[in-house]
């Protein structure tokens, strides 16, 4: 593959403190050299290595950041839940039960319909700068439908998560233990070959601590790495179990005890915040400052799903994180790039240091601060994935 030189960059976020200013490693008046799909060099334009060859792209005095790494998404589903959203915005509280509506529609859908929906949402995410996206199952909830969901997800991303424990399906109503046994047994057997991660919705109305621990432990024995939905709807044991089992990430975290915060700060589990869910369910936001100040690693993700956060837009989540979760603009951008990469245990994405994948976003703005300063404005002008242009607004 030929090389690419991007120059005329007013402000470059590398997320490499060795390359530039602060934790974001910001370089002003910068250039970036891409070779064979990887970042070959990043730094001040005036020090661009001689002989850096290939196609030239003039950023025109705009900002460049790493592609967003969205570590939490539910994209394999059919139908939507606009009526439920409308009702909720008219005063009805969100409960986990709404997921069952999507389960019924997903079971009815053809493989091609599910595939088309994932493709549409991945493309939509890419247009707003997301170059790496995780994708969960969790709307099939039978052995065959969960395995099918994971196969479809795997056609679009390598970050595939088995979430058979999303909600107890109607046919197991009143016997959640029997369903949890299926999730950790025959369903896991069918799903493990198609997934990298295993996730459990550990919350009120979903799965309790004992079920969560049993399912994640079984998944671990099959080589899957745990992640946990914890503390979205109420306090519970999810965070404690996540840290104890070495989960890559604990997600939502709206309801946290002091012990939970301490565990996240001291362990290897990333705290992933999903402000789109609080926005769309009109719920209190998680306390990002408490987590950051305690020393936890915080990721931001969109939680795209048809029930509680039907957005693929990380720029929107960055704006919410700054406005409503009191993260600084720098922290929010770091969490949506490097934080997401940490939550997926990836060292090749989320930054633009030499050797990183050339997943690059050009903003129609002079700096990354505009992502939160200009909420709702489509600032993503151009996206490169592995050094190739994949989405362009201008
Ligand atoms: Zn989720």
TrEMBL record:
Q: Which Pfam families match?
A: Amidohydro_1
Task: Identify the keywords attached in UniProt to this record, alphabetized.
Answer: Cytoplasm, Histidine metabolism, Hydrolase, Iron, Metal-binding, Zinc
Under which pathway is this protein filed? Amino-acid degradation; L-histidine degradation into L-glutamate; N-formimidoyl-L-glutamate from L-histidine: step 3/3
Q: What class of enzyme is it?
A: hydrolase
- Tell me the organism: Sphaerisporangium dianthi
InterPro entries this protein is in?
Amidohydro-rel (IPR006680), HutI (IPR005920), Metal-dep_hydrolase_composite (IPR011059), Metal_Hydrolase (IPR032466)
Q: Could you cite one Gene Ontology molecular function of this protein?
A: imidazolonepropionase activity
Q: What functional role does this protein have? A: Catalyzes the hydrolytic cleavage of the carbon-nitrogen bond in imidazolone-5-propanoate to yield N-formimidoyl-L-glutamate. It is the third step in the universal histidine degradation pathway.
Cofactor binding, note field = Binds 1 zinc or iron ion per subunit.
Q: Which residues bind N-formimidoyl-L-glutamate?
A: 139, 305, 307
Q: What protein name does the entry list? A: Imidazolonepropionase
Principal localization? Answer: cytoplasm
Residues that coordinate or bind Fe(3+): 72, 74, 229, 303
């Amino acid at each position: 593959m030929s090389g690419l030189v991007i120059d005329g960059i007013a402000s470059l976020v590398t997320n490499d403190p060795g390359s530039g200013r602060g934790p974001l490693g910001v370089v002003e008046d910068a250039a970036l050299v891409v070779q064979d799909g990887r970042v070959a060099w990043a730094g001040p334009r005036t020090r661009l290595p001689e002989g850096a060859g290939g196609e030239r792209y003039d950023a025109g005095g705009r900002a460049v950041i790493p592609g967003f790494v969205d570590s939490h998404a539910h994209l394999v589903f059919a139908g939507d839940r606009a009526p439920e959203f409308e009702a909720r915005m008219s005063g009805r509280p969100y409960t986990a039960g709404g997921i069952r509506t999507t389960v019924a529609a997903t079971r009815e859908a053809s493989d091609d319909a599910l595939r088309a929906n994932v493709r549409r949402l991945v493309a939509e995410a890419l247009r707003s700068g997301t170059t790496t996206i995780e994708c969960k199952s969790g709307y099939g909830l039978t052995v065959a439908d969960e395995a099918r969901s994971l196969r479809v997800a795997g056609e679009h991303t390598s970050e595939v998560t088995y979430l058979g424990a999303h909600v107890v399906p109607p046919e197991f109503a009143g016997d959640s233990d029997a369903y949890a046994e299926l999730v950790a047994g025959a369903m896991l057997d069918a799903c493990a070959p198609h997934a990298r991660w295993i996730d459990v919705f550990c919350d009120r109305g979903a799965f309790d601590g004992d079920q969560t621990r049993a399912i994640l432990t079984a998944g671990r024995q099959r080589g899957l790495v745990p992640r946990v939905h914890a503390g979205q709807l109420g306090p519970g044991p999810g965070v404690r179990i996540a840290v104890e089992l070495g989960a890559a990430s604990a997600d939502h975290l709206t309801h946290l005890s002091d012990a939970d915060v301490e565990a996240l700060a001291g362990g290897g589990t990333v705290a992933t915040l999903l402000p789109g869910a609080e926005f769309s369910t009109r719920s209190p936001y998680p306390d990002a400052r408490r987590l950051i100040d305690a020393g936890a690693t915080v990721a931001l993700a969109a939680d795209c799903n048809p029930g509680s956060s039907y957005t693929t837009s990380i720029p929107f989540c960055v704006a919410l994180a700054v406005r409503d979760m009191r993260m600084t603009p720098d922290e929010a951008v770091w969490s949506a790039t490097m934080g997401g990469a940490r939550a997926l245990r990836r060292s090749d994405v989320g930054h633009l240091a030499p050797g990183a994948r050339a997943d690059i976003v050009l903003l129609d703005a002079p700096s990354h601060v505009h992502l939160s300063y200009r909420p709702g404005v489509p600032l993503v002008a151009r996206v490169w994935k592995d050094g190739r242009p994949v989405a362009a607004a201008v």
